[in-house]
Design brief:
single chain; about 45% helix; 11 helices; alpha/beta; 8-stranded mixed β-sheet
Length: about 260
């Protein structure tokens, strides 16, 4: 991929598996490193929008559950508690770098309503003009359908297209898209660049992870949404947030999904 010197408006999506330990508790060290990288990118002149999962997992732990609730009401309550905890942590960590964060919670229905979408675009643009860093999540405590079936991968892609982003980065718990399931096949190879999403590629996309609602199938849907609007996408391992610098320098990190004419 080419060096991303001119790509100033970047949407970064971080998944639950990146933000939490296997215990379900927040991975504070990784979260802090991600915040430092995003703050530094802002200092370098980039406009950053963060789409963050993790509210349900964090909320469940804070409520004392040993696993994610198996009822809709339990999930809604966990999301409500976890969203507060996540924003508290983000605000605390970003404030160390004098970055003002803001929160936007909305549903897919909002993006289907022209009037609400127009207001949302105005809010995004004003926040970025004020040099704030918007943090986005689905409104899981209110919209049950998205709580059960939604995913922040596609939400991040829709946000990227909404604000005319220059690049979408999806942080996940593996290095990128493989030609087979690396958890089953030790000889699976990382696909470093994709110029076209084929049915064969979708067939090897894999299923959902243990902590989140999205797997590689949803990530490919997100890629199709973004690249269809001319926005390239990188799927990479969120365990090393500093690798985002390498992505912007044009180095081969994770899987890069190009756009037509590139």
């Amino acid at each position: 991929m080419a060096k991303v010197e001119g790509k100033r408006r970047i949407v970064v999506k971080v998944g639950t598996s990146t933000l939490t330990h296997n215990t379900g508790k927040t991975n504070i060290a990784r979260m802090a490193k991600l915040v430092s990288v995003l703050s530094d990118l802002k200092n370098a002149g980039h406009e950053i929008v963060l789409v963050s999962s993790g509210a349900i997992a964090v909320g469940a732990v804070k409520l004392g559950f040993k696993s994610k609730p198996d009822t809709t009401k339990g999930l809604q309550a966990s999301a409500a508690v976890g969203q507060c905890e996540l924003m508290f942590l983000y605000d605390k960590l970003f404030s160390e770098y004098s970055v003002v964060v803001s929160q936007l919670l909305f549903s897919a229905d909002t993006l289907e309503n022209p009037q609400e979408t127009a207001h949302l675009i105005d809010t995004f643009n004003q926040l970025l003009e004020y040099d704030s860093l918007p943090i986005i999540n689905e409104n899981d405590s209110v919209y049950v359908e998205e709580l059960l079936n939604g995913d922040n991968d596609c939400l991040s892609a829709k946000v990227a297209t909404l604000i005319d982003a220059d690049l979408l980065i999806l942080l996940t718990d593996i290095d990128g898209l493989y030609d087979d399931n690396p958890n089953v096949n030790s000889n699976a190879s990382l696909i470093t660049r994709v110029d076209e999403i084929t049915e064969e590629l979708k067939a090897v996309a894999g299923g959902a992870g243990a902590k989140g609602t999205g797997g590689f199938a949803t990530k490919l849907k997100a890629v199709e949404i973004a690249t269809g609007k001319g926005i390239p996408v990188v799927i990479m391992n969120g365990a090393k947030p500093t690798d985002i610098y390498k992505v912007l320098d044009g180095k081969s990190i994770g899987t890069y999904f190009s756009v037509k004419g590139e």
